[in-house]
Design brief:
Blueprint lengths: L1 H23 L5 H29 L2 H8 L4 H36 L5 H28 L4 H25 L2 E2 L3 H4 L10 E5 L9 E4 L7 E5 H6 L2 H16 L2 H20 L6 H34 L1 H13 L9 H6 L5 H8 L1
Parallel strand pairs: 2-4
Antiparallel strand pairs: 1-2, 3-4
Helix pairs in contact: 1-2, 1-4, 2-4, 3-4, 4-5, 5-6, 9-11, 9-12, 10-11, 11-12, 12-14
Length: about 350
């Protein structure tokens, strides 16, 4: 029964996302359609992946795979986990992503290169999943108890430190051109600004990453330079600089680790209360939300102070007009989202 559900899930996920895409593009304007389509894509991906992971984990499939491998138990458990993530999580999420592509093509007017879409999705999944698998692998290899907990914390810290420079070195990342460097604000001095090449499916975005001096990065996609004017681009980079200067990157990492601590304590055998630990971690993650949303407002204020509030507001308005960020959130989205809606951010700037 479980095997049938696992095999059918990608098909069902694809069909559901096609229907969601059709409903989204019925919106009165392109911006609303893009916003609805992006929201549906994320929610359906999360739902399909979580259901798939639960189904595979609840079935004898992963245990059978681990038992079939002629390797030590810890290695077999790690292999079974990797297969569970791939089959139960990544494949259904990819099916949803592919199902929304026809609707997205009708919104943007661009034809979809499905081969490139699959490569890009799997590459992003690898970037997101590989660090987690590394941490889990360390956990499986370490002795149980407090030693295992220390190993997990150390592995997570190593990922936080090493991932940004590895991405800068081996990812589709380059140094800014002279024209791009000209719009980097003076407040970014001492940080490493790098440009992410997005290819034929551009995404206008920027992110702050890295916690150690000398390895703190601001990654900016090439599409952002084309989407915004020079002043607005400078404001977005200054916003990401603000996350570094105001300690937001470290605060987010520590807050998330604190929220997940009850689950890690149970997983490592330090405490024995699985359900209360999961509930407590869920509540703590919800509590982290307001902190992360506050860091966005604070980074906006930092950018406004260094490059002007008009430039920051213009950047937010342009991204919202292009359907790249939501103007408003539903009540549920306001509760679980780590990013406040653009409407609230712009009102705070005024």
């Amino acid at each position: 029964m479980h095997a049938a559900v696992v095999l059918a899930l990608p098909v069902v996920a694809y069909a559901a996302s096609r229907l969601a895409g059709v409903a989204a593009v019925r919106a009165a304007d392109r911006v609303t359609a893009a916003s609805r389509l992006r929201r549906a894509n994320r929610l359906l991906q999360a739902g399909a992946a979580l259901f798939g992971l639960f189904t595979v984990t609840d079935s004898p499939l992963d245990d059978a795979f681990a038992a079939a491998l002629p390797v030590p138990d810890a290695v077999g458990a790690f292999g079974a986990l990797a297969v569970t993530v791939l089959v139960g999580g990544v494949v259904p999420a990819l099916a949803v992503h592919l199902g929304t592509r026809p609707a997205w093509a009708s919104v943007t007017g661009d034809a979809t290169d499905y081969a490139a879409t699959v490569r890009r999705f799997l590459g992003l999944a690898a970037v997101l999943v590989a660090p987690a698998l590394f941490v889990v692998g360390v956990w499986l290899a370490a002795p149980s108890g407090t030693t295992s907990l220390v190993a997990v914390v150390s592995a997570a810290a190593l990922v936080a430190v090493a991932l940004p420079p590895l991405a800068a070195r081996f990812g589709p990342v380059r140094a800014p051109t002279d024209a791009e460097a000209a719009v980097v604000p003076a407040c970014a001095d001492g940080l490493r600004v790098r440009v992410v090449e997005t290819g034929s499916h551009p995404v206008a975005n920027a992110v702050a990453a890295g916690v150690l001096p000398g390895s703190r990065y601001v990654f900016v996609t090439d599409a952002l330079f084309r989407t915004l004017d020079a002043g607005a681009t400078t404001a977005v980079i200054a916003h990401e600089v603000g996350h570094h200067r105001r300690g937001h990157v470290v605060a987010r990492f520590l807050a998330t680790g604190f929220a997940l601590a009850p689950v890690f304590l149970v997983a490592n055998g330090v405490v024995d209360a699985f359900v209360p630990a999961v509930v407590l971690s869920f509540v703590l993650l919800l509590a982290v939300g307001p902190l992360v949303r506050w860091t966005e407002f604070d980074a906006d204020a930092y950018a406004a102070a260094h490059v002007g509030d008009a430039a920051m507001e213009r950047a937010l308005a342009t991204l919202a007009d292009r359907g790249l960020v939501p103007t408003e959130h539903s009540r549920f989205a306001r509760l679980v989202s780590f990013h406040p809606a653009v409407g609230r951010r712009r009102s705070r700037l005024r």
